[in-house]
Amino acid sequence: MATRYTIGSGFVITALAVTLIALLIPVEKFGTQASASAGPPAAEDDGAGIMSTAYGPLTPADRDFVRKVRLAGLWELPAGRQAQQRGTRATVRTAGEHLVEGHTELDRQVIQVGQALGVDLPNQPSAQQRGWLDQLTRAQGEEYERLFIQLLRRAHGKVFALLAQIRAQTRNSMVRTLATSANATVLDHITVLEDSGLVDFDALNVPDGTPAPSDVRPTK
Q1: Contact (Cβ atoms closer than 8 angstroms) between residue 89 and residue 196
Q2: Which of 7, 129, 166, 199 has the smallest number of Cβ neighbours within 10 A?
Q3: Which residues fall within 8 angstroms of residue 196, CB to CB, at 6 or more apart?
Q4: Which of 138, 157, 149, 153 lies closest to 218 in space, CA to CA?
């Protein structure tokens, strides 16, 4: 009897273990995929490691964030100026004005931060950002306005997760202050872009890539 009981108990335990493993594996994989897709953009590691500064440790993620703030201004400033000149809707011209004002101030701050922390900053937009500016230059009329709003709203939406992560995790006081300023600026820009009534919210979460003018559909 004892032997049969022991064997039976062993079968039950084994079955439970197999079931538990089968349940956990897909859940773990799904969780990993979900967090990867929903999380902030991965920071680029410049290979310099963690540096000591008078304002606290400076990590590769901190430096990547500072450079991305500078990059944002390098294309959003000219995009904002263009919208001020070419926008036929008052709301589009207002959005352009906010972009120019916000990124002029952020650019001033990020240059100071870069100099104080010894972070080398880019001086021209990335290839993707130049592609966006080229699209805006080619677009005409209402197509231009919808493309401007959609490109800028998508770009600002994606930076929110990065701002939150840096603001919460950085141990560098200058980077923290810059993240706080950037967060306020991004929220202001998202608000005025949405006030235009031209944002296609269904198209905001499409995979990364440069959207063509045909991707920007009128809102209903």
Answers
A1: yes
A2: 7
A3: 89, 91, 92, 95, 145, 149
A4: 149
**Residues 100, 189: Cα–Cα separation, whole Å:** 10
Apex CA 44: angle with CA 203 and CA 47, to 5°? 175
Contact yes or no for 135/151 (Cβ under 8 A): yes
Using DSSP, state whether 125 is helix, strand or coil.
coil
Backbone angles phi, psi at 51, to 5 degrees: -110, 145
Of 178, 190, 179, 70, which is closest to residue 122 (Cα–Cα)?
Answer: 70
Q: Which residue do the tokens 């430096």 mark?
A: 63
167 CB burial (10 A radius; 0-12, 13-18, 19+): middle
d(CA 98, CA 113): 22
Number of Cβ atoms within 10 Å of the Cβ of 166: 27
* Alpha-carbon span 63 to 23, nearest angstrom: 41
Measured between alpha carbons, how far is 20 from 31 in angstroms, rounded to an integer? Answer: 16
Q: Is 145 helix (H, G, I), strand (E, B) or coil?
A: helix
Tell me the C-alpha distance between 52 and 117, whole Å: 9
What is the length of the chain? 220
3-state secondary structure at position 142: helix
Compute how many other C-beta atoms are within 10 angstroms of the C-beta atom of residue 23.
Answer: 10
CA distance 63 to 48: 10
Question: Which amino acid type is present at position 164?
Answer: A
pTM across the whole model: 0.74
